[in-house]
Design brief:
about 30% helix; two-stranded parallel sheet; globular; Rossmann fold; 4-stranded antiparallel β-sheet; alpha+beta
Amino acid sequence: MKLPAHRRSTLLSHDGARLGWVDETVTLDKALTLRVHCSGEEDTPAVRVTLPAAEEGGQLMSSCLWPVALATAVLLRRPRWRDALAGRDCLELGAGLGLTGVVAGHSARSCLLTDHDAFAVDVLRRTAEIHR
């Protein structure tokens, strides 16, 4: 069992309306587990995404979990976007750590994640292995 080393929640809201939130847990081995929730959709289970521990060596752009990835992950759990992705193939360019693509893949028929940085591609391979 992996013990948590750090936990936090990030809330996404727009014009005072709460859209959803992401719970983050970093384990002692530095793996990151996220649970993406959608407000008003309590009957829809949160998507659980585990990202492998990232070693040093990637370009800064591709080796960070950007706030926009958290926001996009929450939006992709909203019914409008889940329905839009259902049965479709999607492509994520510049996937970085892969959070957005993994969440999209829960609704889409398939999701291809790409990145130019070799470090990011290695992380994406490990992320895909976790979520097979």
